[in-house]
Amino acid sequence: MALEVITLQQDILNTFRVSISTENAIEKITYKNTVLSLLASGDGTEVIHHKLPAGHRWALNPEDGWNALEFFYILSGSLIWKHEDGERKLVTGSSVSAQPVKEPAIFFAEEDTEFIYVSSQPVFHYYSKAVRDTMELAVSVEKKDGYTSDHCQRIMKFSMLVGEKLNLPSHELVVLNLAAFLHDVGKVNISDSILRKPSKLTDEEWLEMKKHPLYGYDLLMETKFPLLEEAAKIVVQHHERYDGKGYPYGLDGEKIHLAAAIISVVDSYDAMTTDRVYRKRLSKEEALQEIVANKGKMYHPIVVDTFLSLSDKLN
């Protein structure tokens, strides 16, 4: 069943709003100002309140063996529904439902948005255990590696801008969203003495550092969560180079997953424009010049051109 959209009348909307309260939620998840509150649960059905900040995304994705009725209703704000055939704006009072979801869809918050999500099969803890814990691990790794806590968020944000500009299918965007955030999660298995070393790594240390994409792949595959397993196949390639001189496999050209090529450019830009223990940051202009200089060498030419076309949106 395809997603169906209905917009309720204002009087029904007002009645519905009055009945919603998150004060007595069964459980809450808070991450980067996104708040999920489990309001009710019984007979497998869950009612979840989402508070999604402007600029953030939420997705519905089909999964094998999943036959739930899924429904969400916008209490306030608006979402841009990005799907295979284009975009549609959903406003306060709009609701979307499907049983089951058969097409991937991404919803982008143009403004701070709140909505109620109902699933006839439990999803709250399934999501929080497999995805939230991994994301928190990724953030802890980036902090250990000398980045700010916003590094993962920036990589995800800019990667999605490039992916959307390239008109990647909705499902690929969902996976890119996760892979970009989790790209360096494998560094959890790299010792602090290597990650925080202020001087040049020895050959032995560098060989160990180059294993982190493989460690990330293994970690994500171990979750047995389908989307994270797909993300693992991108994470393992994000240090491959267009000219075949990258790692861990030495892939080249179109053999590299496009999503991994996107993350490679975005991650390099963010690294160059961030202060590190061993060097000062480059200016935006200097970093872009460096990326252009390595177009067709380190970086996929189309990804570079697309990234440059979005330069006015970079911090």
TrEMBL record:
Family matches, as SMART domains: HDc (SM00471)
Entries under InterPro entries matching the protein: Cyclic_di-GMP/3'3'-cGAMP_PDE, HD/PDEase_dom, HD_GYP_dom, RmlC_Cupin_sf
HD-GYP domain location: 126-315
Pfam family, one: HD_5
Listed name of the protein: HD-GYP domain-containing protein
Native source species: Lottiidibacillus patelloidae
Taxon lineage: Bacteria, Bacillati, Bacillota, Bacilli, Bacillales
